[in-house]
Amino acid sequence: MIKHCLFPAAGYGTRFLPATKSMPKEMMPIVNKPLIEYGVDEAIQAGMTNMAIVTGRGKNSLMDHFDKNYELEHQISGTNKEEMLVDIRSLIDSAQFTYIRQREMKGLGHAILTGKQLIGDNPFAVVLADDLCVNETQGVLEQMVKLFKQFRCTIVAVEEVPNDETHKYGVIAGEHLSDDLIRVTDMVEKPEQGTAPSNLAIIGRYILTPDIFEHIENTEPGKGGEIQITDAILKQASNGCVIAYRFKGKRFDCGSWMGISMRQITAMKTYT
Ligand code: G1P
Fold first, then answer.
1. Which of left, alpha, beta for 212 (phi over 0: left; psi -120 to 50: alpha)?
2. What region holds the Nucleotidyl transferase domain (predicted)?
3. pLDDT digits (tens, 9 = 90+) for 198-239
4. Mutate to test the pocket of ligand 1, among 54, 106, 128, 208 (most ligand atoms within 8 A of CB)
5. Which residue segments constitute the domains of the chain, with CATH numbers given?
């Protein structure tokens, strides 16, 4: 039912310099796969077939990755190396990839609005590839699609974070419907230390209804002078229903060296 998944991927990745001087941060490898491929895997597993990627200058390798490489494939054809391309070939065959370039970096809300033409009037998922989520039985997006079928409104994934880390995230508050589900009444983007409405932080998985685009268009720049998706979702919450979901699984913050290294170590343990 949800076929589109949007990947905002235009950022400069300055936290990873110099590695990201000429390589998109989304292409940083976790063992043998680039970060963004894990997000695409998760979307495909959740039944999505249209991957809409918001790119920027210097990000062409993202497009090349989700395409054939005839020269390379010809070179390794018939050798035992061919096997290493089996997964990516099947991923490319399972989905359609479309791209749009974000010319200016004006915040996550602006990045999502840039993808509007690729999404149309459909509910869609958003994956921030930096947040790598793993769960053995059911991916986080798949869990969220199930909830969307039930609530038919915007769903945001949240997790509890220590109180001294709430300032790094969008933070929600609301009415608990169950242990895992909260009807959102408040959301603050990166609250100042000690002012967060709770310790439930939004992580990079969203399912958004298409009216979000109009809300973003009417959202003034917020935290850091940027157009924040958190502010636009709060408008949806005050007009109707937004559900926050404490997902099952583990998130690695691959927007930081610590998170990416932790994921490398745990993945290597499984791989070896
Ligand atoms: C973005 C969102 C924030 C969310 C976070 C999750 O922030 O603006 O609300 O909690 O992603 O990773 P960023 O990390 O891009 O600054």
1. alpha
2. 9-258
3. 999 999 999 999 999 999 999 999 999 999 999 999 999 998
4. 128
5. 4-271 (3.90.550.10)
